[in-house]
Amino acid sequence: MNWDDTGPDIDQRLVDSGSDGEDQAVEAALRPKDLDEFVGQEKVREQLDLVLRAARARGATADHVLLSGAPGLGKTTLSMIIAAEMNAPIRITSGPAIQHAGDLAAILSSLQEGEVLFLDEIHRMSRPAEEMLYMAMEDFRVDVIVGKGPGATAIPLELPPFTLVGATTRAGLLPPPLRDRFGFTGHMEFYEPAELERVVHRSARLLDLEIDVDGAAEIAGRSRGTPRIANRLLRRVRDYAQVKADGVIDRDIAAAALKVYEVDARGLDRLDRAVLGALLKLFGGGPVGLSTLAVAVGEERETVEEVAEPFLVREGLLARTPRGRVATPAAWAHLGLVPPRQGNGGNGQTGLFGT
Ligand SMILES: Nc1ncnc2c1ncn2[C@@H]1O[C@H](COP(=O)(O)OP(=O)(O)O)[C@@H](O)[C@H]1O
Ligand SMILES: [Mg+2]
């Protein structure tokens, strides 16, 4: 498995992988700095607000927080907000970067009291590190193993209280003992178009761009429910407006620009359409296994599963079944294709249950 890279979020490798350092700098500049600035996710925001307020009132370190949700929904942003709200420093690392328990021990033992440790992609941490983390989270202690073989000894090391913020695209992949050690789990949902419009207007203001209500709605509607994508599309539309128009972004300009970038009216991008297209054209609408589908589109399994599928499932275009991935009738319609005759699933058998 090609799972050992420590590169950027999976989603940042996508679609406009041509995007440069400027984009990442802009992304950082657009991050909301406190809970009030954070758009949407009402439930998570309210719950988190309580957790943080209570901890502050007690003068204590906040409980460990797990954030789960698709890429680009604001997990990293929230972790920084948690630190800011607690007036605490933050250390940022990720599961793939911690391959040995020793890597984790080094980080943990250098934490300051009250510090926030952000562990991105926590489901990709190595097993031994994970086990060390259990004890660190619960007892604020680690056992550092010194030496090898029969002579090895465990030296207990006290840690200052800290707040672990774990982020994962796959809460279901976390071993229960790890999940249970978080005092609070925030499930991030895809954003509603109205919320994304607010994100677009806010970002436009920060970037000093002129955009009208319809222009923002057009971008929001094509952003796959994801603020990171809304911001990214806004920047691409900005480029287009700069070159081809007088700079003000309205609906026509937004639509024309997004056509250039192959983002369709429903927000599907090239990867989404490649996945659907393969499912329909090569596999007759499925069911087909995830790995086979990933190979067909030349992507990693995890990219298809964590980046493309959650959105396609939410849009009712694709279903995950025990037998594999299946396209819905809406998928055929969206790509303008005609489904094969029902009950004749491509292999000449008639319906088992004789409908
Ligand atoms: N609730 C939000 N309100 C405004 N902007 C947001 C929100 N959530 C995310 N963003 C923007 O989207 C970008 C990606 O968010 P990030 O926290 O990096 O996502 P994740 O870590 O879940 O992949 C950030 O640059 C931020 O500007
Ligand atoms: Mg992130």
Poorly predicted sequence stretches spanning 5 or more consecutive residues? 1-19, 344-355
What fraction, in percent, of the residue positions are helical?
A: 40-55%
Largest sheet: 5 strands, parallel
Helix vs. strand class: alpha/beta
CATH architecture of the largest domain: 3-Layer(aba) Sandwich
Strand and helix layout:
Blueprint: H1 21-30, H2 42-58, E1 65-68, H3 75-85, E2 90-94, H4 101-109, E3 116-120, H5 127-139, E4 141-146, E5 153-158, E6 163-168, H6 176-180, E7 184-187, H7 193-206, H8 213-221, H9 227-244, H10 251-260, H11 270-281, H12 290-297, H13 301-314, E8 318-321, E9 324-327, H14 329-334
Parallel strand pairs: 1-6, 1-7, 2-3, 3-6
Antiparallel strand pairs: 4-5, 8-9
Helix pairs in contact: 4-5, 7-8, 7-9, 8-10, 9-10, 11-12, 11-13, 12-13
The structure holds adenosine-5'-diphosphate and magnesium ion.
Adenosine-5'-diphosphate binds near residues 38, 39 and 228.
